[in-house]
Amino acid sequence: MSGYIIETGGLTRRFGERVSVDQLNLRVPEGKIYGFLGANGAGKTTTIRMLLSLIRPDEGTIQIMGRSLSHHREAILRNIGSLVEAPSYYGHLSAYQNLKLIAKLLDLPESNIREALDTVRLTPYAKQTVKGYSLGMKQRLGIAQALIRKPRILILDEPINGLDPAGIQEIRHLLLSLSREQGITIFLSSHILSEIQAVSDYVGIIQNGKLIFQDRIQELEKRNKVRLAIIADRTDEAYRVLAGGGAEIERYGSQLLITVTERMSQADIFKLLQPFTLHQVKEVTASLEEIFLQLTGRGESL
Q: What is the pTM of this model?
């Protein structure tokens, strides 16, 4: 058995002539947070629906906890909690009553309800009707619904979509706690790159249904290109000298932005600029969003 709790091979799903997910090979390590990034329509939700057996793949395999999803569907799904899009609840009932309905349906003890409410920090509000909850509280209730069966895996589709900064912070702390303290594997889809960066151990990037990157989050950050932002006297002449020397260069008014590469090191750049007086030299590193745009050829927007 591999060290991956979720593993897919050649996973493909079509809708008519359109290929929504194309030969996807996911590798999700156990006990980690895996961030699944992609623009709207890239195939994230379709992938999640296949992992939850809500739709069938046209091709490929899904192994979860070392077993085939197609052959051991019920046993596998008992160990998965999920929140796909907006949580479902009865607004006129309290959080406790909503969870009690689920517990009865799944034949779970009431102790599971109390634990789920404690985990998402809703115990003080458990008897209040859900219609009076903030959006962040409703989202935490949705996660409590996913946690009530004490799953090994949590699959969340855009869990912070629409939340205010305080709500985002709550969900972020909750996910880190579930992973670090309880060892739950979290498969998290989002288009909010800064939040993926804040919580994820691993990241996969999907574009037009294809997985174009998959590794530790640190490996994605290593793809960052270092650039020098320079203001020199005789800007036009400095630009011509750098461009003539083979530098990757962009100009923004009086500022020159030069990319450091294997072919053009910082030492090479400063050698070309020796005839000029430098008024500003600043090292600029890309954000995770800029790295995403580099990987996708700047053809996707999040």
A: 0.81
